[in-house]
Amino acid sequence: SRYIEMTIAEDAGKEQCVFPLPEPQDLFQASQMKFEDFQKDLRKLKKDLKACETEAGKVYQVSSKEHMQPFKENMEQFIIQAKIDQEAEEASLTETHKCFLETTAYFFMKPKIGEKEVSPNVFFSIWHEFSSDFKDFWKKENKLILQERVKEAEEVCRQKKGKSLYKIKPRHDSGIVSI
């Protein structure tokens, strides 16, 4: 409660008051991913790219020189770029997996018995539950802070209405106003 008051008190009820954690739904989706599936997909893409390159080579062999361009040039550019992209994706997946393992180690998470590493499902399921509970509590606290601010603003309005901007002096019996 104190943390929430300190972090959102200024922005409570305003548009800039943003939930400070990843959305629970995003964490749930992260818990459903498997590094093995991504690795398998990348291997399949690499195999498909190799097959595409082979098929393009067959087309080059049976085509006459006057009909080969611009197909050959476009396919060669495509295959070169596809290989670069595929290698970049493999490197990105390797780096992401490494960062994930470092993160699980930072939080002292140990793999389940019989597993060699902590799975994203285990790791992100815990964070999903925490984020979900925290978001419910955060919304309630935000609402309470907003209600307190509204009450304070209403009190300031009441006090200002109670004080007149001009002074009314009592009228003399003679009807002459004294200054």
Automatic annotation (TrEMBL):
Domain FH2 residues, every copy: 1-160
An individual GO BP term: actin nucleation
Origin superkingdom: Eukaryota
Pfam families in UniProt: FH2
Any one annotated GO CC term: actin filament
GO molecular function: actin filament binding; microtubule binding
InterPro entries assigned: FH2_Formin, FH2_Formin_sf, Formin_Cappuccino_subfam
PANTHER family assigned: FORMIN HOMOLOGY 2 DOMAIN CONTAINING, ISOFORM I, FORMIN-G
Similarity annotation: Belongs to the formin homology family. Cappuccino subfamily.
Name under which the protein is recorded: FH2 domain-containing protein
Organism of this sequence: Chinchilla lanigera (Long-tailed chinchilla)
